[in-house]
Amino acid sequence: RKEFVDLYVNYVFNESIRKPFEDFMQGFLRGCPARKWKIFLPAELQIVLQGHTKFDWHLLEKNVIYRQYKKLDQTIRNFWTVFHELPEEKKKMFLAYLSGSDRIPCYGLEYFTFSIADPQAENPDEIYPFVNTCNHILFLPR
């Protein structure tokens, strides 16, 4: 039985995926030569490729740049009050809305910044918040 289980596990995890994995590896190494990846430990490489998955939301708040707003404006205080009450999954959805990804780039949250700007609409009650994902700007009507 042990020999059967060993052979079956080897087949499922190695033999059955050998050709698709070799094809993937060939394509991956064409765009990203292996010698450049050797400088990373496995955990570091995962962060480079996927980004950070752990967040300090208060640090994110600290790194915001305000345009046409001050940190103590009522709109900003209301925004952060609501934001911090959101469940973790909704906060990640906001991050994806803001930046196009629900993860922080590999350089880390302490360097990730975004802006909150007033779109300066004549009637702010008639427009919704919107973002510029390329520049990480949230346009938040008053």
From TrEMBL:
Keyword NAD attributed: no
Gene3D superfamilies: Hect, E3 ligase catalytic domain, Hect, E3 ligase catalytic domains
Domain HECT: 1-142
Reaction(s) this enzyme catalyzes, per UniProt: S-ubiquitinyl-[E2 ubiquitin-conjugating enzyme]-L-cysteine + [acceptor protein]-L-lysine = [E2 ubiquitin-conjugating enzyme]-L-cysteine + N(6)-ubiquitinyl-[acceptor protein]-L-lysine
Active-site residues, record numbering mapped to chain: 134
BP-aspect Gene Ontology terms: protein polyubiquitination
UniProt keyword Mitochondrion, yes or no: no
Pfam families with a match to the protein in the record: HECT
Enzyme Commission number: 2.3.2.26
SUPFAM superfamilies found in the cross-reference section: Hect, E3 ligase catalytic domain
Record keywords: Ligase, Transferase, Ubl conjugation pathway
GO terms, molecular function: ligase activity; ubiquitin protein ligase activity
Protein name (database record): HECT-type E3 ubiquitin transferase
Organism: Herpetotheres cachinnans (Laughing falcon)
Gene that encodes it: Herc4_0
